[in-house]
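$ run holo --ligand "iron/sulfur cluster" --emit tokens
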Amino acid sequence: MYREIELDNIDLTEEPPQEEPARQRYFIAKARKRLRAISERARRPMTFRIVTFGCQMNARDSEKLTGILAAIGYAPSDTEDADLVVYNTCTVRENANRKVYGHLGKLKRLKEANPYMRIALCGCMTQEAQVVDKLKESYRFVDLVFGTHNIFQFAQLVCQMLESDSMVVEVWEGTDQIVEDLPAQRKYPFKSGVNIMFGCNNFCSYCIVPYVRGRERSRSPQAILDEIQNLVNDGVVEVMLLGQNVNSYGKTLAQPLSFARLLSQAVEIPGLRRVRFMTSHPKDLSDELIQVMASSDKICRHLHLPMQSGSDRILEKMNRRYTKESYLRLADKIQTAMPDIALTTDIIVGFPGETEEDFQHTLDVVRQVRYSSAFTFQYSKRTGTPAAVMEEQVPADVVQERFNRLLETVQDIAREECARWEGTTGQVLVEQVNHQDDALLTGRLGNNLLVHFPADRALIGKIVDVRLNECKGFYYMGEISDGNITNDAAILENKRIL
Ligand code: 5AD
Ligand code: SF4
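-- output --
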């Protein structure tokens, strides 16, 4: 967690310190001075916009980038018509890359109209050598390119970018370094992601992540718990513990600690109301974790358990290291221990060699487990992964047809699962004013379902009881339950309720 420091007191006539994070603080101060001079010349504040693609890890990384830019003195902008635009990219599927190149074309025109504008690219896509080559060749107007491993160097790189007229490229192939204590600025004041580990060692045969995010590295439990405590002190009530596979947390620490143990320590933090986590690989989800989850009502009743395929043959080719039967057994164990849990999943359709029979196994798992929601993907060939060179790539029209059937099944079941809660009262973390109707607030149940209900916006960031009146497919319309009026003394005192 970032401790306020007097940036303007850092002596910039000295050489930058070698150790982190002091080195980055030095560069924040240096970039700040430089930006101030630019602002004076332009006679206006310099603005920034970060566009995030992909997963929760990227979303959290973007909060770190935001914190650094705010410390440097950039003002946030709601549009890409800003003086610094950062694309934090994803490369899990081919589509994600295409989207970024498309956006870059638009940025080029904006840059031609604004002499102060700079463009930076980071995230998983820039870890791919051929992407960097393409940027150097055809996207010369991009000013800064950096990768996932050296994201902590952002202040230093911004400094370099502000002092240079040519493209700055700094992409590391890997690292075992974890730099703590740099600024971060949260999107929501009341909830936050917390990285517990970086990288992935699983090498699922379709997946680019292990190549672009590197080997597994766990943060120390103390650093994680301190960060959560500081977040709670700063008004956070819900944290999401983040890792590509949280179940292998702690294995590489000098003193190994299981994820379940870390979780049970996290829930003890006073003032913390809710804990979530993402993502769990089914191959090593322990009984200990199920038991810790079941024994704490602070741990949200939601588990994301990527299935990918229901066919043993395909699971083997995917290198997932579980079978249909062991997956179903695990799901059953979890649902038996926590009957109110919402299970969600990721499914890939059209992996090389997938037959109709394989696909039927996937549908069968969907019907047996009854997911509350599922991210469904058409297999996308990622150069550099083992699956990309597998024979029997499935024709696009077959993939599309299976995908449509899968989506229909997933959605029918998700609707029924959502409807289970009609008429009950649930605890909702109020997140924001409803986008469509500003008389309504939108909040999230522990099981991740969204609820819209009329209430005063002073409740944003609070956890309140909401009666789930009407299921609208995948979300609820509700009303504040009377219980809150007597429960939440602080709000009563301020007479802010309704
Ligand atoms: N093609 C399609 N989907 C993929 N995913 C990862 N790699 C690919 C790929 N090559 C999906 C998996 C993973 C999710 C984050 O993205 O389902 O769980
Ligand atoms: Fe990719 Fe598999 Fe690692 Fe998930 S567990 S990030 S799907 S390699």
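-- notes --
Residues 485-498 have pLDDT under 50 and may be disordered.
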